[in-house]
Amino acid sequence: MNSVDLAFTSALDQAKLIRNKEVSPIELTQLYLDRIEQFNPRLGSFYTVMRDQAIAAAQAKTEQLSEFELPPFHGVPIAIKDLNAVEGIPCSYGLKVAKKRLANRDDLVVTKLKAAGFILLGKTATSQLGSFPYTEPPGFPPARNPWNLDYTPGGSSGGSSSAVAAGLCAIAQGSDGGGSVRGPAACCGLVGLKPSRGRISMAPIGEAFSGFAVSGVLSRTVTDAAAFLDMTEGYVTGDPYWLPSPDTSFLDATQQDLEPLRIGLVTEIQPVGKADPDYLEAVIKTARLLEGMGHVIEEFTPDLGEMIEPFAVAWRNQVDVGVPPFFLEKVNRALWWRAKFTSGSRLVRSQHQLQMFARKVVQMFDQFDVLLTPTYMHPTIRVGEWKHLSPMRTIDEIIKWIAPCPAFNVTGQPGISLPAGFDQNGLPIGIQLVGRPAGEATILALAAQLEAAQPWAHLRPEAFSASS
User: Residues 109, 195: contact at Cβ < 8 Å?
Assistant: First the structure.
């Protein structure tokens, strides 16, 4: 296997190669560090590269290969989004003023990934405070899409999606408060899994963004996403939300046969309207494929109108994190000021409205096992495309683009974005599967069916696939 093929190999297959001593952790880690050095200046995928720490960890794991029992991902490199803390490493939240602020502890998800055997390569780019579906915070280079550098890789997990798509790592952690894993996956032709609320602990902090934000994963294969979830799931004492661990692993779920499912096909969302033609065609084509597998498809048009304003209230209030407004970029600054004039009673009322909306959406799943939607409603935007818009116009454009995603952060349901072809610009398109609460096993099994029918892991952006 040449170095490029190895760089684009799935994380589970890399772990197998390591266990079989066909490649060592130090060789694999050095390969990725070399690719990061070569390509990151063009991509802006990483804010911090943990070169010395990664090499030290890889050397230690190479020496441990003779041990009898190894963790599942022993020696496999991974990247961590720069909204999550790694002890002793800067955690900027996309804030220029915090570029050198060192974290004093690991987030629990990082601790679990280390225990699973992963080697941390570094911290990936995020939009400022994780607020936006593009990754262009002031004071940092913009993250770019490996399929076309003029376009965004999405956000706020844009650095993670860019890194995986360009072969700078096989798998990356992200987080999702309104589509921030699923959207970047769609933009970059990857698998992006947002688990149910309470599936992955947010310890040592409490809830984030009214409970809407959860840790997730970006990968090239469904099985990698499932195995990541197996390594990170689980309740910790004091968590505000929790789910029981499944009886069988999520990785095993990807190998299970499914009985015919009732799948709601969403091509239009009110009040936003229909998806753009390429995106409409991709989701309809996926529906036909699922129908050919024996699943029952029924068209459905959700109305998100009552969610938009209370979600906007929650969104702007999560920006007020104690950072003076002059450190914020203009849209976050506008949100900050609007939050200052939002009363406590209005915030509580919006949370109640969102809870009632969530109840209606979950009740809708009495008639469906899964929803099938476009991940985003229209083509990936260019880097800086909305830079000159007013803050309120930018927010309107964001709402129209990401419409299929935030509702399921409100409800806490699991969602997964899968590659579904390319648009007229040659950029990836994603479709989304949404499951019932705690229904990750079902959507992972269904995603695995789609992956087997139309494999995508071999697809690579040409500019990052040539042998050096």
Answer: no
Task: Tell me how far apart the terminal alpha carbons of the chain are, to the nearest angstrom.
Answer: 14
- The CA R_g of the chain, rounded to the nearest whole Å, is 21
Residue 100's Cβ-side half-sphere holds a number of Cα atoms within 13 Å equal to 0
Return the number of other C-beta atoms located less than 10 Å from residue 387's C-beta: 13
How far, in Å, CA of 101 to CA of 387, rounded? 27
Q: How many residues does the chain have?
A: 468
User: What is the amino acid identity at position 56?
Assistant: A
Tokens of 324: 């003076």
pLDDT given at position 468: 53
Three-state SS for the chain is CCHHHHHCCCHHHHHHHHHCCCCCHHHHHHHHHHHHHHHHHHHCCEEEECHHHHHHHHHHHHHHHHCCCCCCCCCCEEEEECCCCCECCECCCCCHHHCCCEECCCCHHHHHHHHCCCEEEEEECCCHHHCCCCCCCCCCCCCCECCECCECCCCCCHHHHHHHHCCCCCEEEEEECCCCCHHHHHHHCCEEEECCCCCECCCCCCCCHHHCCEEEEEECCHHHHHHHHHHHCECCCCCCCCCCCCCCCHHHHCCCCCCCCEEEECCEEECCEECCHHHHHHHHHHHHHHHHCCCEEEECCCECHHHHHHHHHHHHHCCCCCCCHHHCCHHHHHHHHHHHCCCHHHHHHHHHHHHHHHHHHHHHCCCCCEEEEECCCCCCCECCCCCCCCHHHHHHHHHHHHCCCCHHHHHCCCEEEEEEEECCCCCEEEEEEEECCCCHHHHHHHHHHHHHHCCCCCCCCHHHCCCC
What is the C-alpha separation between 225 and 446, in angstroms, rounded?
13
In the block, tokens 């407004």 appear at 325
**Is it the case that residue 208 has pLDDT exceeding 80?**
no
Q: What is the CATH number of domain 3-461?
A: 3.90.1300.10
Q: Which two tokens stand for residue 10?
A: 């799935």
pLDDT digits (tens, 9 = 90+) for 145-185: 999 999 999 999 999 999 999 999 999 999 999 999 999 99
**Contact predicate 365/436, CB 8 Å:** yes
This prediction's pTM? 0.97
pLDDT surpassing 90 at residue 466: no
Q: Are 179 and 402 in contact (CB under 8 A)?
A: yes
Q: How far is 403 from 336, CA to CA, in rounded Å?
A: 22
Catalytic annotation, residues? 81, 156, 180
